[in-house]
Amino acid sequence: MSATATPSTDVTTETDSTEESKEERLRSYLRKRAEDGELYFKSKFIADDVDLSPKEIGALMVKLSESAADLQIEKWSYTGATTWRVEPA
């Protein structure tokens, strides 16, 4: 006798929803801080504000630079850590 499990049709995992909320939290923070003009920052200085690690912020900034149509994001310089430049699109 063989028992087979029915595959799940739910494609959203907890990890996906957590990633989305982290990305949206960072995007909202950047949008608010850059609404008056350009913003320069290093991940380690905003980590506490967005409740993310500097490493998580760096990874999300790369994603956001490709997907956030309302923000212009670029790596500005690297001196000990990446400085990011953000301004409204």
Helix and strand topology:
Elements: H1 14-33, E1 39-42, H2 43-50, H3 54-67, E2 71-78, E3 82-88
Q: Which key phrases capture this entry?
A:
single chain; 89 residues; 3-stranded antiparallel β-sheet; globular
Q: What's the short version?
A:
The protein is α+β, with helices and mostly antiparallel strands. It contains three helices and three strands; from the N terminus they run αβααββ. A three-stranded antiparallel beta sheet has the order 1-3-2.
Describe this structure in words.
The chain has 89 residues and is α+β, with helices and mostly antiparallel strands. It has 3 helices and 3 strands; from the N terminus they run H-E-H-H-E-E. The protein has helices at 14-33, 43-50, 54-67, and strands at residues 39-42, 71-78, 82-88. A hairpin with a 3-residue loop joins strand 2 and strand 3 (82-88). Helix 1 crosses helix 3 (54-67) and helix 2 crosses helix 3 (54-67). It starts with 13 loop residues before the first helix and ends with a strand. Residues 7-13 have low confidence and may be disordered.
Our Rg estimate from Cα atoms comes to: 17 Å
- Tell me the fraction of residues in β-strands, as a range: 15-25%
The H-and-E topology, N to C, reads as HEHHEE
Number of strands: 3
Measured distance between first and last alpha carbons: 62 Å
Largest sheet: 3 strands, antiparallel
Helical percentage: 40-55%
Main-sheet strand order equals 1-3-2
What is the SS-derived class?
A: alpha+beta
Mean pLDDT: 85
